[in-house]
Amino acid sequence: MGGSRYTGLYHKEALQSHRLRLISVDRPGRGSTTPCSVKHLSITKFSWCALELMDKLGIAKFSLMADSCGALFAAVVAVCAPERVQGHLALLSPWNLPSCPVASTKLKVAHRLPGAVVSLFGSFIPYLVAKSAKAGLHGFWGRQMRKKMSSAEFATLTSPCGRELMKQTTALLMAEGGKQAMINDMLLSLETYGPSDVHYTAVTMPVIVYHGDDDKLVPLKCAVWMRDNMSCCELVVKAGGTHNLLLDRSFMAGVVLPKLQSDWENQACTNA
């Protein structure tokens, strides 16, 4: 939620060392995509956009990795075209919907809020992020963000590369359409206007869920539920990891990316 196509650049060197090419796809309404209202936004329709992009790029098979509420969008791609996803579906700190049996009480309460209230709250988030970025994460809201991160995650965000990428991400959030995209994310994630058109249990291909045991936004029990209820799901728990697990460079470079690389190497050996 609030992510952008710049997020993957935190791991540019690690991706290169593992011989992985990252294609970050902006969700509908974000970046340079066509603005859209959440009432006309379907997670399933996004899968058609993603698959059409792969077709235009001439990519028959690809790995699939997603973070937080982006996991919902990745899951529907895996449901619609599992034969095109290489190896496994990698989900980092996957968002769980209010309809999930183990969803937190706070999430269920937020689900019952009127759409206008959720939209109003969502419209303030870009301003708070921008203010924190301008203050170098040392102001009040910056300190609040710091409390929700591990030391490794915070170090990535405050590195020279991290500060520059945060500025670019903030510019996207503050740009025309950026605030509405944030609102769309919140309304979809909270199932405010109706149940989601995709659920993790519909995924039949192998899945690896990476989750921090200090994730306050989506508790670890949600990841455990996914492991126990999806047809083929492995759970990898990062001690001390939070909902910002994607920002942990050492974890990404040492655990997540090598597994994606091995999927391709195993396929090459099979074809040899």
From TrEMBL:
Domain spans labelled AB hydrolase-1: 13-248
InterPro entries: AB_hydrolase (IPR050471), AB_hydrolase_1 (IPR000073), AB_hydrolase_fold (IPR029058)
Pfam families to which the protein is assigned, alphabetical: Abhydrolase_1 (PF00561)
Gene3D superfamilies in the cross-refs: alpha/beta hydrolase
SUPFAM superfamilies, per database record: alpha/beta-Hydrolases (SSF53474)
The organism's place on the tree of life at top rank: Eukaryota
Classification via PANTHER family: AB HYDROLASE-1 DOMAIN-CONTAINING PROTEIN, HYDROLASE, ALPHA/BETA FOLD FAMILY PROTEIN
Name of protein: AB hydrolase-1 domain-containing protein
Species of origin: [Myrmecia] bisecta
